[in-house]
Amino acid sequence: KNEVEQSPQNLTAQEGEFITINCSYSVGISALHWLQQHPGGGIVSLFMLSSGKKKHGRLIATINIQEKHSSLHITASHPRDSAVYICAVSPSNYQLIWGAGTKLIIKP
Amino acid sequence: NAGVMQNPRHLVRRRGQEARLRCSPMKGHSHVYWYRQLPEEGLKFMVYLQKENIIDESGMPKERFSAEFPKEGPSILRIQQVVRGDSAAYFCASSPAMIQYGAGYTFGSGTRLTVV
Q1: Are B49 and B55 in contact (CB under 8 A)?
Q2: How far apart are CA B35 and CA B19, in angstroms?
Q3: What's the confidence (pLDDT) of residue B102?
Q4: Cα-flanking dihedrals φ and ψ of residue A60, to 5°?
Q5: Is pLDDT of A74 > 50?
Q6: How far apart are CA A108 and CA A99, in angstroms?
Q7: What mean pLDDT is reported for chain B?
Q8: Chain A partners of B107 at a C-beta cutoff of 8 Å?
Q9: How far is B48 from chain A (nearest CA, A)?
């Protein structure tokens, strides 16, 4: 079993829909990261969380440390949100354990 | 305020040649991390460096790969005698302090190495 599990693996939705991507992990962590990777592109760090909830524009990330679970939400989704969204955890300090990613496609 | 700069963006090498990948961290960042993403796979940690020091290279292959972060200039990931299996995207990230103290990562756009 992977230490970081993301679901769903693939997600296709219509523009405007509310999107939720989930991440569960099995190790103790100091922080959890959500990142975005566009096809052929670089990686953008969206959030780093150690507790609670963070919001940036249409993106919201939450984490429940007791349940070892995090969610990334996108409100009013748009085709430009199409990308791979990756959850990664920091078990101690600098080493990240990466989820396999969720490929999101938003259709106009 | 430039972010993490990696160059080249794309690099093609023939088998047996050397590949040099460069990473200039964000201004004020003294910690550099290299990750490799093989096709259809997630990122894997390779090495963590601070200025003039390799802190952790547990993710680096034992042979042909080396990394440095000199006092002046960018961090360099060097792959000698490249093989087809080295074809991957190599990402660099930087942070102002160790991540455990709450410092976030900033990633570069990556270098896509193709070995022909």
Answers
A1: yes
A2: 15
A3: 46
A4: -130, 135
A5: yes
A6: 28
A7: 89
A8: 35, 42-45
A9: 8
Confidence of residue A64 (pLDDT cuts 50, 70, 90): very high
Does any CB of chain A come closer than 8 Å to the CB of residue B34?
no
Distance CA A21, CA A84 (A): 11
Give the residue from chain A lying closest to B36, CA to CA. A98
pLDDT interval class at B45 (50, 70, 90): confident
> pLDDT by residue (tens digit) across B66-99?
999 998 999 999 999 999 999 999 999 998 876 5
Listed in order, strand segments (DSSP E) in chain B are: 5-7, 10-13, 19-24, 31-37, 43-50, 53-56, 65-68, 75-79, 88-95, 106-107, 111-115
* Mean pLDDT, rounded, for A70-91: 94
How far apart, in whole angstroms, are the C-alpha atoms of residue A17 and residue A106? 9
Q: How much is the pLDDT for B27? A: 87
| Test mutation, B29, B107, B111, B112, chain A, max A CBs within 10 A | B107
- Identify which of A31, A50, A99 has the shortest CB distance to residue B42: A99
A28 touches B: beta carbon within 8 Å: no
Q: How far is it, in rounded angstroms, from Cα B31 to Cα B23?
A: 11
Please tell me whether residue B85 adopts helix, strand or coil conformation: helix
Question: Which residue in the set A41, A94, A99 is minimally distant from B99, CB to CB?
Answer: A94
